[in-house]
Amino acid sequence: MSRKISIVLVLAVVAAVLGYAVWKIFLAPTGLPPDGFARGNGRVEADLVDISTRLSGRVSDISVREGDLVEQGDVLAVMDTAELNAQRMRAQAAVASAEAAVAVAAANAAKAEASLALSQSELARAETLSERDVISRENLDIRRTEAQLAEAGLAAAQAEARAKERAVDAETANLREIEARIADSTLYAPTPGRVLYRLSQPGEVLGAGGKVLTLVSLADVYMEFFLPATAAPRVKLGDEARIVVDVRPDVAIPALVSFVAPQAQFTPKQVETIEERESLMFRIRVRIPQALVDERLSQVKTGVRGVAWVRLVGPDGALPDWPEGLTPPVATSLPAPQDGGAPAAGRTQAQ
Question: Please, are residues 105 and 157 in contact by the beta-carbon 8 Å criterion?
């Protein structure tokens, strides 16, 4: 019995040693990467999005709290719209009044058109009677003048009708502007994400552009790292990559190269080796596929430190196969950050 236990212990030790060797060769942050591969230190990051008000006003309600997961289109906060609603009612009344004025102007135009038709008919009759010397030349001139006045009156009535129509357009545009302001008073999530900071509270008065919330956008989860000039030109957009986070070194997360800097820059602080610090570096970004992020949306955290691996194109244009240490299944849950999350690389504004 003791012999069997000894054999089991020996096998366990051998398995542990082999596992450590695989991790040490392929996944450990120290040491040289295998031929055909390059790696760099980085953190899982996502952009920060500021949810801000377009107009000044009082915060009526905030429906989320820090740490809440939100989907695109979710209502995050509502600004007070009592004053805007009153302006909308006034604008609606102005539109109705302008439309009534158009109806009156159209009736006046119709009346002027009928007067013109009557004047033209009387002028034609007067011209016929004048040829027979039944009416005087003076009466004929009067009919002609009346017809000209009727024609001018019709033109004026039609111009007034067009002016009233334009007034309706102006009042309608004013109404739509107010309705747009009311719509802007409801703040929606522009992307799926998680609430990082709640910067305001209900009842507070904010100026135009005042920040209400800050979201960590989960529409683009990525890791940035740096490669030397000897490796960066051998990396192309769309190439496969792997991300291995420090808290789960046994898991390789698939990713794609989404950015390769077109020019070198001075070595940043996060590059740790002395040899690489002495050279210019190229910034590389690898992005986790959105479908994978969506499947684990509630588990994704930013600020997790790790290593990004990429394959380098060989002289014959071929890519090496991923070693066994970088091809395990993706973890069923992504690890939480050790430091509670880190600031993301970018920040955008949403209203």
Answer: yes
Return the higher-pLDDT residue of 16 and 216: 216
189 neighbors 49 (Cβ within 8 angstroms): no
Using DSSP's 3-state secondary structure scheme, residue 96 falls into helix
Residues contacting residue 202 through CB under 8 Å, at least 6 positions apart:
59, 60, 61, 62
Q: What percent of the chain has pLDDT over 90?
A: 36
State how far the Cα of 108 lies from the Cα of 99, in Å rounded to an integer. 14
Map tokens 């190439």 to a residue.
239
pLDDT at 325: 72
For 96, list phi and psi in degrees, rounded to 5: -65, -40
Buried b (16+ CB within 10 A) or exposed e, 175-198: beebeebbebbebebbbbbbbbeb
User: Distances in Å between the alpha carbon of 209 and those of 54, 56, 185, 197?
Assistant: 5, 7, 12, 16
Q: What is the DSSP secondary-structure string of 267-280?
A: PPTT---HHHHTS-
To which H or E segment does residue 213 belong?
Answer: strand 211-228
10 Å Cβ neighbour count for 229?
11
If pLDDT is split at 50, 70 and 90, which confidence band does 333 have? very low
Asked if 313 contacts 39 with a C-beta cutoff of 8 angstroms, the reply is no
Q: Give the strand pairing for 57-62 and 69-70.
A: unpaired
